[in-house]
Design a protein that fits this description.
With about 575 residues, this protein is an alpha+beta fold. Helix content is about 60%, strand content about 10%.
Length: about 575
């Protein structure tokens, strides 16, 4: 009961702020006032407020509503597939700060989280915080071993507050979804659900520790990933190696010492970006200047791994092909890839879709790939996909925003750096790895295993269909000759599936034997493997010949059974 009253008060507070910034009409359309019991009265927006852009007013609304809504804005700013570029630009400026907690409270939170007196874990903790944000506060500290670390401590009660606010957001989203026609393929409830998931991950510092350790698995010559101290970390406390250096932001502002090499930094940032994208398949989702430290020797240190994206091998390959297709001005391939990696909400006119992509690529005709702004081009392609109601997977959207941030940094540090030329060796390496003999044989083995599974499952699925037909779950009218033909076809399919299952098993076994015999000149084919492959080919060939000639399989019209 008490929580319900608090929620109602918070909902009224939200409605007042929304009206204050000129979005009262939105609440009118949702009929939220009926749920609140009365229309809330708030100061009318000033003339200057109304003259400001909707994006600016939206940013100010979120900023005034507090931590949960600020985080919502920051997460949305990384999703160019969800909101327009002008909103992204405004939301990217949202600053997440909060008054610092007193040291006594911080020490108590450390002890509650780690279940030990803080003096057993740390020699000292600096009373002055390095940073104080809405979710956590960061302090320098020293371990009993003398190692310098930073300790990130979650604010008390923040999880309860965020859960309460996101529940209210879900309530508001259902209102919006029910009454606003132009919500598009990204429904308000879907957006809030993604936000809730992202926030719960950000509140779990153990998740961030896992992300850091995953990045740290791969050795880097010029990039430092901070070490995690798991014995000094938990869900609400995270202890990391301290990286002491200069914030990249200072370099971009021109306040760096003369020994900082801007061109070298640009190249190393770009190399690290492509290493993550093409080689490792895991990338930093928020590489803004505040999360990059310039260390001695122009090395880079990366911070804040709360937002991380992961790419499968297929995703990595599609990105390479997309870049090549854009470089070759091949709208057919671009259209095919966007349609393939996206999630179409409905059938689309592919001919018109390709024509619209052709129009976009034509605007860049005559320009080198290095002269094309990837941010602008990706935004145009994303907007076009949304126009055709093709939903872009989250990983690609986060990557698009991260790439835009990196591109902006590179252009400030070294405008003459040829991004395409730097990317080429990484893209080549990805394709070489993709089509290497070991990768191809592994892919073939997976395909054969899938085929074996398909052949094993199909009889059971066919049996289920026949049982449904026999049990009267389908109303079917079939002439005698059609039933006779069906019986013949079922027998033929049964023989084909039986022989095919044996053949696929022999093939998988043969490949397993091949992998076990190797010599100085490569892999030798053992006699048993050759015999298995030969027998498999004979069995499968005999089955196919019998079904096509003796069994006389004909195509079945499913529609006739469903009329």
């Amino acid at each position: 009961m008490i929580q319900a009253v608090r929620d109602l008060q918070r909902l009224r507070e939200i409605s007042k702020v929304v009206v204050k910034h000129g979005f009262g009409e939105l609440l009118d359309r949702t009929r939220l006032w009926e749920a609140l019991g009365r229309r809330e009265v708030s100061e009318r927006p000033s003339a200057a407020e109304l003259r400001a852009t909707s994006a600016r007013r939206f940013r100010d609304t979120l900023a005034e509503l507090g931590p949960t809504f600020i985080k919502l804005g920051q997460i949305l700013s990384a999703r160019p597939d969800m909101i327009p570029p002008d909103f992204i630009a405004e939301l990217s400026t949202l600053q997440d700060s909060a008054p610092p907690l007193p040291l006594e409270q911080v020490l108590r939170l450390v002890e509650e989280g780690l279940q030990k007196p803080w003096r057993e874990l740390f020699a000292e903790i600096d009373p002055e915080p390095l940073a104080s944000a809405s979710i956590a506060q960061v302090h320098r500290a020293r371990l009993p071993t003398g190692e310098q670390v930073v300790v990130k401590v979650q604010r008390p009660g923040i999880e309860v507050q965020i859960r309460s606010d996101t529940d209210l957001l879900s309530y508001l989203a259902r209102f919006l979804e029910g009454v606003i026609e132009e919500t598009g393929i990204y429904t308000p409830t879907g957006i809030v659900a993604e936000f809730q998931k992202a926030m719960l991950l950000e509140l779990d510092f153990e998740n961030e520790a896992r992300n850091i350790e995953e990045f740290g698995k791969n050795s880097r010559e010029n990039v430092v990933i901070p070490r995690t101290y798991r014995t000094h970390s938990c869900r609400t406390v995270l202890t990391l190696e301290e990286l002491r250096g200069l914030k990249l932001k200072a370099v971009l502002e021109g306040t760096a010492p003369p020994d900082v090499d801007r061109k070298l930094l640009a190249r190393r940032i770009l190399d690290e970006s492509f290493q993550q994208l093409f080689i490792e398949g895991i990338f930093h989702g928020d590489p803004h200047p505040g999360n990059v430290i310039v260390l001695p020797g122009n090395r880079l240190g990366l911070l804040d791994f709360g937002l991380v994206g992961r790419l499968s091998k297929a995703m990595q390959e599609s990105i390479v092909v997309l870049v090549l297709a854009i470089g070759l001005r091949d709208p057919d391939t671009v259209a095919r890839l966007l349609y393939k990696v996206g999630i179409p909400d409905e059938r689309i006119n592919l001919h018109r879709f390709r024509a619209d992509i052709h129009d976009i690529l034509d605007r860049y005709l005559g320009l080198k790939l290095s002269e094309v702004s990837s941010t602008t081009l990706l935004n145009e392609l994303t907007d076009l996909a949304l126009t055709y109601k093709i939903k872009i997977p989250k990983e690609y959207a986060v990557l698009s925003k991260a790439s835009a941030t990196t591109e902006g940094i590179i252009r400030q540090l070294d405008p003459d750096l040829d991004v395409a030329q730097v990317a080429l060796p990484y893209a080549k390496q990805l394709l070489i790895d993709r089509y290497s003999p070991s990768s191809m044989s592994g892919g073939l083995l997976r395909l054969l295993l899938q085929l074996q599974g398909f052949l094993q499952d199909t009889p059971q699925q066919l049996s289920q269909i026949l049982m449904d037909l026999e049990g009267g779950k389908f109303s079917v009218t079939v002439r005698n000759e059609e039933m006779q033909r069906l019986n013949t076809n079922v027998k033929a399919l049964g023989i084909l599936l039986f022989m095919g299952s044996i053949a696929s098993g022999l093939i998988v076994g043969a490949f397993s034997l091949v992998g076990r015999v190797s010599g100085p000149e490569g892999t030798h084919w053992p006699l048993a493997a050759l015999a298995g492959l030969t027998l498999a080919a004979m069995l499968f060939g005999a089955a196919v010949t019998w079904t096509l000639v003796g069994g006389r399989i004909r195509k079945l019209s499913v529609r006739r059974f469903l009329k």
